[in-house]
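hiii so um. not sure if this is the right channel but i have a protein structure encoded as tokens and i wanna go backwards to a sequence. like what aa goes where. can anyone help
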């Protein structure tokens, strides 16, 4: 097989043409480093290897780019990389990020749990569900949540004061209860706080 053209494309990619036919887009640096120049004869094994190397470089570059914006769990990072690279390259990139200390599920769980509880005002039950969605295993999630002390009734009061000023109105009250239940709060805590605001038994 003869490389007949290598044409620049967007995002540091190049289009590879073999025997006059377009084959695929590959990472430009990988092509240059491996001297995939016009006029070079290659075989199937060499083509497969350059594809693997290109995917691995793209996966690592994507991982670093994503981590430059915010922390990610291993699962979350791998899923995002897989949108542009194959699964094997994505997993390898994530493992490398973990080796470098750039990905740490235990530390991610601690930070994210505090954000869910103190910024998003979720209960620990709801926070546990969100941590699981991010790929944090149950044991790590429990450890992170056990470190946090929180007064649910105080949390509920904060939510009501910030979002539901007219809590005496029946429609507003129902909306507030539904929202608090979605955040994972139990009925006993919700009712106790509601009663303190409305001055009656909220059933």
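sure thing!! here u go:
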């Amino acid at each position: 097989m003869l490389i007949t053209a290598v044409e620049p494309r967007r995002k540091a990619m190049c289009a590879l043409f073999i025997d006059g036919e377009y084959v695929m887009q590959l990472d430009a640096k990988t092509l240059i480093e491996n001297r995939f120049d016009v006029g070079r004869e290659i075989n199937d094994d060499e083509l497969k290897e350059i594809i693997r190397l290109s995917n691995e470089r793209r996966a690592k570059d994507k991982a670093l780019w994503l981590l430059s914006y915010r922390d990610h769990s291993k699962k979350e990072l791998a899923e995002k990389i897989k949108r542009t690279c194959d699964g094997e390259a994505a997993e390898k990139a994530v493992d490398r990020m973990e080796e470098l200390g750039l990905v740490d599920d235990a530390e991610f769980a601690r930070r994210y749990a505090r954000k869910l509880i103190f910024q998003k005002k979720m209960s620990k039950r709801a926070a546990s569900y969100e941590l699981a969605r991010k790929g944090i295993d149950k044991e790590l999630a429990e450890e992170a949540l056990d470190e946090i002390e929180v007064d649910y009734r105080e949390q509920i009061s904060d939510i009501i004061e910030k979002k539901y000023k007219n809590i005496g109105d029946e429609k507003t009250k129902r909306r507030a209860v539904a929202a608090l239940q979605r955040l994972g709060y139990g009925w006993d805590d919700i009712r106790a706080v509601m009663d303190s605001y409305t001055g009656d038994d909220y059933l």
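oh and The longest helix spans residues 44-69.
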